[in-house]
Amino acid sequence: MNMNDNDLFNRLLILRSPNIGPVRYNALVAQFGGIDMAARAINADDGVRDCVAREMEMARKLNITYICDDMDVYPKNLKMIKNHPPVLSVRGNVATLTRRAVGIVGTRHATVAGMNIVADIAEKFASHGVAVVSGMAMGTDAAAHRGALRARGAENTVAVVAGGVDYIWPVENESLYWDIVERGAVVSEMPVGFVPQGQNFVMRNRWIAGIGDFLILGEADLKSGSMKTAHFAHESNRKIFAIPSHPSDSRAMGPNSLIKSGVAELCNGASDFFDDEKNEKKLKKNEQKNASENSLLDAIGTIPVSESVLSEIVKKTVSEIKSDLVILELQGLVRKVDGGYVRA
Q: Is the domain of 219 the same as that of 257?
């Protein structure tokens, strides 16, 4: 769907009006039968209209794009999340949002070893055409973005930010910000020029979890934004992988607790997803190979099949088929739903 300036103005006019978020926005559009009629019905004052006009002009000058949830470029996974943002602003390459994606998050105070593992994982995913989604914070987030940017090509990484897409935070990541704009995308639901507040970071975490096909958690304290992201991912039925760490370190409590409780699967590094050269070649050739040659794929149809049932069909243990299922998910051939896996 194409969107003209008047349509965008009306959408933003509703969203930028006081006490209107995604829930109220959708209710108004449904109640009045469309965007234009809902915009007229709220009778926004001149102050709100002027703010929207200034925002759109600033976005035009900064080459910032708006995408709506009825457009093909809107992230498909995010659209499935209840009360997702009706409008997103994007700075960079919008096409990045159409790629399969993996969320990678963790503490701002990550160890060098922890950041190296995360960067290596991110590079591997980006080199296989999977965009890495994170929050552009210091530490783990920055390592994930930088790792993805080490891979060749563009459309490698997405930064979901709590402020406007033009607001660079933290300032220490300014050079990283411009690298992401050049070879990926910076995304936000907030107005252009908006300075973030504490509650905005919580919603930012929700959208990181929402965009990714699954989530990888690095080092994280038990009560942290990264653990909230993992909670949102679990709520959204996303598979979670967690990188363990030494139990004497508080940064290990988050991932270790998820592994212990069974919410997350243990992740030792990129080799869990891209085991060796043989597996990498297998992944690259996956689109060209006949699906019937894959016994696991043959066992999956339109009715959900659990991992335990699949293991019996293909005569492998559950642990043996997990990595194969991840690869099939990344290739877009299967997806996880309640009750198991179905063909995508």
A: yes
